[in-house]
Amino acid sequence: MADAALFEFLHTEMVAELWAHDPDPSPGGQKMSLSVLEGMGFRVGQALGERLPRETLAFREELDVLKFLCKDLWVAVFQKQIDSLRTNHQGTYVLQDNSFPLLVRMASGLQYLEEAPKFLAFTCGLLRGTLSTLGIKSLVTASVAALPACKFQVVIQKA
Amino acid sequence: MCQVYLWNYPLYIRSVPTENELQFHYMLHTSLDVVDEKISAMGKALVDQRELYLGLLYPTEDYKVYGYVTNSKVKFVMVVDSSNTALRDNEIRSMFRKLHSSYTDVMCNPFYTPGDRIQSRAFDSMVTAMMIQVC
């Protein structure tokens, strides 16, 4: 119980800290902080990608890996599963979470819409890192239409 | 002797007898081919994470080579002396499980960048303890 709250507080502080040190309000400076957050998420994702699938059987295809992300990874980090997973079967997947735990405390509606991307950067990195350990190169972006629902779009890069 | 491979380059190599080390290295490299064969065969057949195989009987002495692949495509390869018949399947499996869990710990270490050679002393001591137990 307390674990979930601890991670949320830590995450909130991380975002606040990275934004506070950024005296440059122009888009260039903002992008730096977002990529730092994403980088942090990436490293954590790499470690989780090693630790979580320990006892699970080998993944036979990409879809299995994505399902693992939606179920096991989300449950381990946010104590709930992703609400929906859609794919175009050509390497693009959309993960939709209707009440994303890191956003659910902020608002429910359109307030704070511009601030939302900051709070999604770490999670994008997390997804990308886990996928990279499991052998899949990808690009993850997030979008918010109305808090606290958000969508993560995963595009698999074919080498 | 054991090795940890990531995408076919070695992350960690350790052996007990220091003579014929080059022989061991050669054997381990060739065993990677067999590992890859097994992985591609696995895709169709049963989905089992662990793989175990006997192979590479060398002309002078007999060695048994065991392999193990994780979900993140990291391969562990172990070479043991065939004269050591006390080693059973379960023991090999438990050794690989220990290796896997120590490797996971190494991955979670924030000072370790994935893809580097493993320099963790904890990992070293775990492998040493395991090898002492066997030899």
- Please tell me what the overall shape of chain B is: globular
Helical/strand content category of chain B: alpha+beta
- The percent range for strand residues of chain A is 15-25%
**Rg of chain A (CA only):** 15 Å
Greatest interface = A-B, 16 and 18 residues
Q: Could you give the order of the helices and strands of chain A?
A: HHHEEHHEE
Uncertain stretches of 5 or more adjacent residues of chain B: 45-60
Mean pLDDT of chain B: 69
Can you put this structure into words, describing what you see?
The complex is a heterodimer of chains A (159) and B (135). Chain A contains five helices and four strands. Chain A has 159 residues and is an alpha+beta fold. In chain A, α1 (2-20) runs antiparallel to α2 and α2 (27-51) runs parallel beside α5. The longest helix of chain A has 25 residues, at 27-51. In chain B, strands 2-1-4-3 form a four-stranded antiparallel β-sheet, sandwiched between helices. In chain B, β3 (63-69) and β4 (74-81) form a beta hairpin. The longest helix of chain B has 22 residues, at 21-42. Mean pLDDT of chain B is 69; it is low at 45-60. Chains A and B meet through α2 of A and α2 of B.
How does the SSE layout of this entry go?
The complex is a heterodimer of chains A (159) and B (135).
Chain A: H1 2-20, H2 27-51, H3 62-78, E1 84-87, E2 92-97, H4 101-104, H5 116-133, E3 138-146, E4 149-156
Antiparallel strand pairs in A: 1-2, 2-4, 3-4
Chain B: E1 2-6, E2 9-14, H1 21-42, E3 63-69, E4 74-81, H2 89-108, H3 121-134
Antiparallel strand pairs in B: 1-2, 1-4, 3-4
Short note summarizing the structure:
Chain A: It comes from Sus scrofa. The complex is a heterodimer of chains A (159) and B (135). With 159 residues, chain A is of the alpha+beta class.
